[in-house]
């Protein structure tokens, strides 16, 4: 009995550490097989749904549509930060010779030649550490995939200078900035492209009472909504509501913590993969 408890504790510790950024569990599933991984999780007492959020399954169903085409595409991640988690996950689905651009502010610590601006580095240590991790992960992604990966420091995350097939938004949840970011992202999509927005824990349509509740807390990053009894980001709720109101003809879906905006309707409805 003591030996079993010890094995269970060690297994839980291993899975908990491995599952921090979600993607390694998918790697384990490939290496061990689904049944073996589920048995390991059951033995450890881990909750699979907590370790692999449902939004990962939804994102998989969207990204596989690009993977199956086997044609190089371009992807923009707004809010790449360290390039851990979702950037690595998204990169794993991009066909060979695709382009992956990750932008964040990084307090302008990087120039175009991937060299630190040392004068500012000591003043912004947290951003400097994030940037160092991003550059390390950039090299790892390029080494493991045939991808062109770029890390970009941007003063304004709303300014997009190129067209992309996939845009993933995970940055700046202030309403005024978010609504511009979402609109500009759509204008920067190629035909057939998609926007994937993170941290939208709701279904569509958005209730009118929730919209009014969010308007009263527009300057807050996160609130507990009495209307939907969930934590929500007012900036995202209002930003997406504004986008849908301004573009009623555009297809928008939401499921399991993300929303998806499509440039056209030629692909199937999103589902949990």
Characterization of the model:
The chain is of the alpha/beta class. It folds into two domains: 2-51, no CATH class; 54-262, 3-Layer(aba) Sandwich (Rossmann fold), CATH 3.40.50. It is 45% helix and 19% strand. The protein has helices at 2-18, 23-32, 34-44, 48-51, 54-69, 86-91, 118-121, 125-144, 175-187, 208-215, 234-246; strands at 74-78, 98-104, 147-153, 164-169, 189-200, 223-225, 230-232, 252-255, 257-262. The strands form two sheets. It has a seven-stranded mixed beta sheet with strand order 3-2-1-4-5-9-8, sandwiched between helices. Strands 6-7 form a two-stranded antiparallel ribbon. Helix 6 (86-91) links the parallel strand 1 and strand 2 (98-104). Helix 1 packs across helix 3 (34-44) and helix 9 (175-187) packs across helix 11 (234-246). The longest helix is centred in the middle third of the chain and has 20 residues, at 125-144. The radius of gyration is 20 Å and the shape is globular. It starts with a helix and ends in an 11-residue tail after the last strand. The model is unreliable at 8-24, 47-51 and 267-273 (pLDDT under 50).
Observed structural traits:
about 270 residues; alpha/beta; Rossmann fold; 11 helices; 9 strands; about 20% strand; globular
Strand order of the largest sheet: 3-2-1-4-5-9-8
**Average predicted confidence as pLDDT:** 77
Q: What is the N-to-C order of secondary-structure elements (H for helix, E for strand)?
A: HHHHHEHEHHEEHEHEEHEE
Number of helices: 11
Helix/strand/pairing category: alpha/beta
Give the CATH topology of the largest domain: Rossmann fold
> What shape does the CA trace take?
globular
| CATH architecture label of the largest domain | 3-Layer(aba) Sandwich
Helical percentage = 40-55%
The first-to-last residue Cα distance is: 38 Å
Q: How many β-strands, per DSSP?
A: 9
- Specify the CATH homologous superfamily of the largest domain: Vaccinia Virus protein VP39
Rg to the nearest angstrom?
20 Å
